[in-house]
């Protein structure tokens, strides 16, 4: 498992989160004007998974339950040497008695599902918790329940021989400043690592997928890219064990270019014990989705756009990206 964790953050590579739920991906297709049908997502995945050279920049791809069951789609990745991951949580629901807060479901029956996913070729897993910043939130109850679920997921994954990607996401939604974003991210990550230790999770056989320390998207006082990179590294150094083999960032509502810039700047600054990599969804596949538009005649162009984005994120891994590359 340690080898898998290290392979996922190999130099110049990162993880592609292609795990949006059927409902979410259909909404995204509709937002960019793609006519949707029963097989639209499978067609989209097949189009992009077949991209030549993807394996040079992408170490692993996280799938959802629907896509991992498609042998043809799995083979497009495994034949390139790309590792298969699976999102195992069942999404978020409102936390009773705590307005504005969410809890992630999916622990029931997880042990059996993990065994099944391992049987069809999964090497790693992912579970996402979401924390919202607002008036008097997050509460310690919400943080506590979510980090306990993350720790149980991680322990069950390791028991099954699968590398857990632990994703506690402090959402960008809201008006909070970067100072508030930093305070909450610090609190959440501190709690995550306390809970992982209590559940005897092997930190050298997991990856952390955190958010960038960020201002809220409705905040009038926007932090600079430099400040976002510095504050994020500061919080990681204060909370994350050096035993963790790597950190793979979520893009969390940042544009494709912004997300790449943040990873690049953190790698330029450096001075941390872990590889700083990426595990993007929209910031990786979003531009390719727009170019594809659901049309076969755009397949090659969409693949080129995906490859271009993957390559730029690969360069960001060594602090070698420049916004001037964006054409």
TrEMBL record:
Keywords: Glycolysis, Lyase. It comes from Candidatus Woesebacteria bacterium RIFCSPLOWO2_01_FULL_39_21. The keyword Lyase applies. It comes from the Bacteria. Pfam families: Glycolytic. This is fructose-bisphosphate aldolase. Pathway: Carbohydrate degradation; glycolysis; D-glyceraldehyde 3-phosphate and glycerone phosphate from D-glucose: step 4/4. The keyword Lyase applies. Its EC number is 4.1.2.13.
């Amino acid at each position: 498992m340690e080898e898998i964790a290290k392979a996922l953050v190999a130099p110049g590579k990162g993880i592609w989160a292609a795990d949006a739920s059927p409902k979410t991906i259909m909404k995204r297709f509709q937002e960019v004007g793609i006519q949707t049908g029963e097989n639209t997502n499978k067609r989209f995945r097949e189009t992009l998974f077949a991209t030549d050279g993807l394996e040079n920049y992408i170490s692993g791809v996280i799938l959802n339950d629907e896509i991992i069951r498609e042998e043809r789609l799995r083979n497009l990745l495994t034949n390139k040497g790309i590792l298969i991951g699976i999102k195992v949580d069942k999404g978020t629901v409102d936390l009773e008695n705590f307005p504005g807060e969410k809890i992630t479901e999916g622990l029931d029956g997880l042990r059996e599902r993990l065994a099944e996913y391992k049987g069809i070729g999964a090497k790693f897993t992912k579970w996402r918790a979401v924390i919202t910043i607002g008036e008097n939130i997050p509460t310690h109850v919400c943080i506590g329940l979510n980090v306990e679920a993350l720790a149980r997921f991680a322990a069950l994954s390791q028991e099954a021989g699968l590398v857990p990607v632990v994703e506690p996401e402090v959402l960008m939604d809201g008006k909070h400043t970067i100072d508030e974003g930093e305070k909450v991210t610090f609190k959440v990550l501190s709690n995550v690592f306390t809970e992982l230790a209590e559940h005897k999770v092997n930190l050298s056989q997991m990856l952390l997928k955190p958010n960038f320390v960020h201002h809220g998207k409705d905040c009038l006082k926007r932090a600079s890219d430099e400040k976002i990179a510095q504050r994020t590294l500061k919080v990681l150094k204060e909370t994350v064990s050096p035993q963790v083999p790597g950190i793979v960032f979520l893009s969390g509502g940042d544009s494709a270019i912004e997300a790449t810039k943040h990873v690049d700047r953190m790698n330029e600054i450096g001075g941390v014990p872990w590889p700083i990599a990426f595990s993007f969804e929209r910031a990786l596949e979003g531009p390719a989705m727009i170019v594809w538009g659901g049309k076969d005649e755009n397949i090659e162009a969409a693949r080129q756009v995906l490859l271009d984005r993957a390559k730029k994120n690969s360069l960001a891994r060594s602090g070698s990206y420049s916004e001037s590359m964006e054409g």
